[in-house]
């Protein structure tokens, strides 16, 4: 098929016009030059391979490097995951308990979702159900700009506005789990809103009209018809937002206080997987136990991220069946 | 009448949600611009940053940010375009395609710090490029690739089938049809997506901490030899970008005017990202008008 197509797009070269067709078929190089189908395919398959390779490489290298602390340094996996004491630099009897960070990461993620989801879904309903024309026109740019603001800027504003606010109104230093969750909650607001809006928009109009025809009010229609119909995509939106909150590093690091203990309250300073990696990675030397343990934390981060991806797939697949 | 009252209350709550969101954005932008614009001056933009004294600028950081952005786009755009073309035009509905789609999805949802750690492992340590612009740009390529792939695929999917059939009916090869008909038709969408993703890359910081580094050597802007260590063009030197600078100043800065520098840098960063957004919209509209021939 490829050869035939050469015939058609032939641009005969000036010196041997008539015979160029047959001759070119035999010359490999000129087929390669003339027949861009080949070149195109090489480019296209090449980039598909790059995508696959980078995922495999990330997973593989991070796993190998992350397992070092268990295989080479003989740290017990169970102790690592359930230990609450993180004193890697203690000269005698150093301990590597990652539970405070895992706990911190999950708490920030869940709190952020609880804070952001109602506002996000409310805004999504506003721009699709209440004011589909101008609400859309106003909120769409708002979402796009909020998505675009870099995470360090969120962190910086958290540091200069939310932390002092917490200090005077909640008490303590102001650096806390709650501050982290607030900053991240604002960050994931646009993510959840835009996907929720798509979900609500995808609900068939007939359903709404049937509901109105039965005499339901707007809210009854939204609550009893639209939201149940869009349920699985709304859940996906929230989980996607949580995945983003979970992976956020610098913005959280700036406001969470970076304590190494398990927090007693959400107004206590704490730390997450990402913040401890951010803080310690630069100071540790390659091959040291501390460095290996940090890679293990990275592995935990990777595994939980994969967990989020699987969860999203599970939710959206279940939504398709029902 | 209770259902009517509930209706009233619920709808008011929904309106309030939308108001809160808009107010959040207004407050954020207002805060950044109010505090930041007064800190921006010509000398702030054109002076080297200082590590101890007050009055440092962000010249090198700004240059690094744009340089890394440029390098990243140089790698990402061809790869992402081809990946998107593959998924939209060539991929058959089989296991392999599903796997590639999953890979794109995984890449898109990996935390950026994980991408940074991968960059540290491979580009910085294994290939021995140290903290450098090249390592940073390659890490950001991994981070940005799925975005461009998706944007391209979406844009290509919206091109009507008849255009492809027309090309093929003329006996043109598939690649030639894609190159000369489908991609040009999808071009506005692709370009808008690329510019928007450029804003995202410009503000990214976590992936750069361990790949491009936290410092910049003294740069001599009259030295344009890319192999020289003091040249701004050298891809093997460490480079602190603007967003990393904001983080660095806030967490480890010891100059007396931390607040001013952070305010100014944030404002510059946000203005740049807003600029990318506006530019993307304008370009999209402009090309659309040219192609469709509307006045």
TrEMBL record, chain B:
The keyword Transcription regulation does not apply. One of its GO terms (cellular component) is plasma membrane. GO terms for molecular function: phosphate transmembrane transporter activity. It is a multi-pass membrane protein. InterPro entries: MetI-like, MetI-like_sf, Phosphate_PstA. The chain crosses the membrane at residues 9-34, 66-87, 99-123, 129-149, 181-202, 261-280. Signal peptide: none annotated. Keywords: Cell membrane, Membrane, Transmembrane, Transmembrane helix, Transport. Residues 62-280 form the ABC transmembrane type-1 domain. It is found in: Cell membrane. GO terms for biological process: phosphate ion transmembrane transport. PANTHER family: ABC TRANSPORTER PERMEASE PROTEIN YQGI-RELATED, PHOSPHATE TRANSPORT SYSTEM PERMEASE PROTEIN PSTA-RELATED. Belongs to the binding-protein-dependent transport system permease family. CysTW subfamily. This is Phosphate transport system permease protein PstA. The lineage of its organism: Bacteria, Bacillati, Bacillota, Bacilli, Bacillales.
